Amino acid sequence: MADIAELITLSRYYGADPDYVIAGGGNTSLKDKTTLWVKGSGTTLADITAGGFVKMDRGRLAKIWGKTYPEDPARREAAVLTDMMAAKMPGEEQKRPSVETLLHDILPFALVIHTHPALVNGLTCSAGGAGEARNVFGERALWIPEVNPGYTLSWAVKDVLDARRPGDPAVIILLQNHGVFVGADTPEEIRDTYRYIMDALGSKIIRKPDFSGKTPQYGPSGEAAVVLADLAGSPSGPGTVIFERNREIAALVEDAAAFYPVSSAFTPDHIVYSGSAPLFIDTGKTPEKNLAEQIGEAWKTYREKNGRPPKIVALRGIGVFGAGPSEKAARLALELFTDAVKVAVYSQAFGGPRFMAADKIDFISNWEVEHYRSKVSG
Question: Does pTM top 0.85 for this prediction?
């Protein structure tokens, strides 16, 4: 059987590779008959140690399936979290298990590695995802239609698994607008399956994103950066903005129509780190106003509409800014936006982009679990 050292090695291997995981995304686990070791919420796979996993009592977790919870999504998830916290083993009191703990527990494998590769999400976040998944993977993969993460997702997967033939476990689980779970009993099988997935999808894509021709901050972008840093700040001081322009982004910011493929959220991670939707400002729409006025008015309107400030601001003909109260927050916002650009480009091979449904975006935007994860990530 695999051991915790092998889990740590696998977790770091995929967690350190931005083709699979960015920031605090993804989660991993190891289990035996009585105990589940699952990544703690707020930890990062790239540098995880044994202390980053939470030991869970599988017997207590199993009892959750027999309980009745409130129908209201927020109250239901809060109640399930309470029961999951009560299923921790002695000595784990200060840790918080991954929101996907129940799903890790029911998969019939010693090792489970959940990641969010942009290449995979080019499929899962595409208009033709379900059909294309069947064409590419056949019976080797399960397709789970978009549902809210946590308890609801775990039930959706459990229902599909229970309906399959006995002894026919799903090694690959594709989650619409979310990512992929891979299960196996050895590290070698995990690596082989991920190679198979990436090779199979890599052979289908139409093109790769073109991030060449990077342009340093200049003219209008420098002026915009000053304004945005002030808006993204707090009473204690200005925030941080990071500018990005390359060939891919230059094409996207030509106008609002060109920007559409990245105008909303693809996955929960995109919402957590780069916001539910970028702010696109058509800088030529009101030429009688200077750039600072246009940015300030657009920022105010966005905040009033969404109840929170934007984390990504795109200026027509100029480029994109990651904005936040700290350099880390601004950089993470830009990293996840860049990931969304990759997803949009890869999705062209599978029918074009498909964003998360509005109610799913609203759930993630207001879910306490993701507020916690965002706070821990800085």
Answer: yes
Residues in a beta bridge with 323: 241
Query: Which of 378, 371, 367 shows the shortest CA–CA distance to 151?
Result: 367
Domain coverage including residue 87: 4-202
User: Is residue 36 domain-shared with residue 119, that is, in the same domain?
Assistant: yes
With contact defined as beta carbons under 8 Å apart, do 29 and 38 qualify?
A: yes
Q: What is the CATH number of the domain that holds 70?
A: 3.40.225.10
**CB within 8 Å of 9: residues ≥ 6 apart:** 187
Under 8 Å between Cβ of 4 and 89:
no
Whether residue 353 is found in the same domain as residue 318: yes
Q: How many angstroms separate the CA atoms of 319 and 222, rounded?
A: 11
As a whole number of angstroms, the distance between CA 41 and CA 276 comes to 21
Q: What is the pLDDT of residues 122-162, one digit of tens each?
A: 999 999 999 999 999 998 999 999 999 999 999 999 999 88
What are the residues whose beta carbons fall under 8 Å from the beta carbon of 101, sequence distance 6 or more?
A: 29, 36, 38, 54, 56, 61, 84
Q: Domain for residue 318, yes or no?
A: yes
Q: Are residues 157 and 25 in the same domain?
A: yes
Q: Could you tell me if residue 228 is inside a domain?
A: yes
pLDDT (tens digit, 9 = 90+) per residue, 337-378?
A: 999 999 999 999 999 999 999 999 999 988 755 444 445 444
